[in-house]
Amino acid sequence: MSTATDASVQLIRNATALVDVGDTTFLVDPMFASPGENPPVPNTPNDRRNPLVPLPDVDLSYDAVVVTHRHPDHWGEAASDEVDADVPLFCQPEEADAFADEGFTDVRPVDDETAFEGVAIHRTPGRHGHGELAEEMAPVSGFVFEGDETVYVAGDTVWYEPVEKTLDRFSPDMVVLNGGEAQFEQGDPITMGVADVAAVREATDATVVVVHMEAINHCLLTRDELRSATEDVHVPEDGEQVSA
Q1: Which pairing describes strands 113-116 and 119-125: parallel, antiparallel, or unpaired?
Q2: Is the dihedral of CA 113, 114, 120, 123 positive or negative?
Q3: What does the alpha-carbon distance between residue 15 and residue 178 come to, in Å, rounded to a whole number?
Q4: What is the DSSP string of 132-149?
Q5: Fewer CB within 10 Å, N- or C-terminus of the chain?
Q6: Nearest Cα to 15, choosing from 64, 83, 71?
Q7: Does 210 have pLDDT greater than 80?
Q8: Are β-strands 89-91 and 64-66 bridged in parallel, bridged antiparallel, or unpaired?
């Protein structure tokens, strides 16, 4: 746990992260599958089985779970089996019943905002791609955790006006972006690439952290490519922690 005035994020793997706000820790988008346990994302430029890499050896202590959406690289059977059934679990309203059906007893759908252990939790818009594909991939959400410091976890979204409005509204101390420039054989990327990350960097003074990289077969942008193309952006390795 962190001290009362700190905010930090520890990348576990892909979008799975521990977000500390004050002395409260949120586990975001737990994907606990073993390497190769899941099939490749279909209709993508390579056919490697997922996840591509193992979980790092880290302490997974947390107070609550937040799931931005139930796509299998953010939540899956392994997480359903391993996460305690009585943990406070925050999610999109559209997906609350699915968690309850899996046996979770403290499901807390967030329509707009709620609170937990002194932290205000706001659900924010996301657009998982462009055009019709984004409609097919919906719904997805981001979440803002507002305590002594504020962390904005954007979720699976590209750069678009509601992301900019969220940055303006909350003036976060830290922003966590899902990078990797995930894409299919057809259509534009469905998560952030270099231009999206650069747009966020231009729009905020926050500490910018990019995760969702090098773990799933359709995420084609590498960490080194993103680091070389951007400035003042943190691109952590699995297990690495970044503070605001």
Answers
A1: antiparallel
A2: negative
A3: 7
A4: HHHHHH---EEEEEESSS
A5: N
A6: 71
A7: yes
A8: parallel
